Structures are given as structure tokens and as C-alpha cells.
């Protein structure tokens, strides 16, 4: 997969599957955009978009784990569920807040840290299984 020059610093998050890698880069790009104060409605729309991207991504990733015979699939799926809950709670907190203007970075940063930790630790464990599957398929 060819990485755009402005995203080269993200190559560590690639796992060797084009669809998953594109989704990782797209999500990280979304987190890196606009870090200024925003109205509540705009922040909620962005956070909900990120949550939807996440849900699509985890379905693709879970399908891939099944395809490659990843032995730690259930543990990985539980981590996905935890992160989905974290996203949902962050959205609920904004919805329930009386504030109308939010510092987008303060809200999104926690979600970004959670996602990056998952990409750094959990998803990196997929790499040897993806490689082995691709090699056996040749």
C-alpha cells in the first residue's frame, strides 16, 4: 500500500491488509483534523461519524480475523466492544452537557488516545497471522 506523503508518519499503524490499513489511516486523519472550539452540534456530528467509521472498521477487522484464523479473536472482539462503549459514553457525555461550545481537541483527544493504543498494541498482533495467511494463499 502506498501511503500519501502527508501520512508517512502513520506507517506504523499498517497491518498488511489494504482495507484495514486504509480504514486505520482514514480514522487517524479524522482525529488529526480541526482542533479548535466548535459548537456542540458540530462536535456531536463529528463524534458520531467517527463512531460509525469505527463500527464499519471493526466489522471488517473481525471478518479478517475469522478469515485468517486469528486465535485471539474473542479477546480482540472484547477490546473492540470496550472501545465502542468508550466512544458511546463520550458522545453521551457531550449530549448531556449544558455547554454549547466545546474544545474539540479535549473531547476527541481521549478517543484518539484509546484508538491509537488499540492500533499500537492489539492490531499489531494481527500482522504475523495476516502475513502467514497471505503466504499460504500463494
Tally of helical runs:
5
Number of E-type strands:
2
Return the average pLDDT rounded to an integer. Answer: 85
Shape: elongated
Strand content: under 5%
Q: Which spans of ≥5 residues are poorly predicted at pLDDT below 50?
A: none
Largest sheet: 2 strands, antiparallel
Strand order of the largest sheet: 1-2
Question: How would you sum up this structure, described in words?
Answer:
This protein is mainly alpha-helical and 138 residues long. It has helices at 18-32, 40-68, 73-96, 104-120, 127-137, and strands spanning 37-39, 101-103. It has five helices and two strands. The protein has a two-stranded antiparallel ribbon. α1 (18-32) runs antiparallel to α2 and α2 runs antiparallel to α3 (73-96). It starts with 17 loop residues before the first helix and ends with a helix. The relative contact order is 0.17. The mean pLDDT is 85.
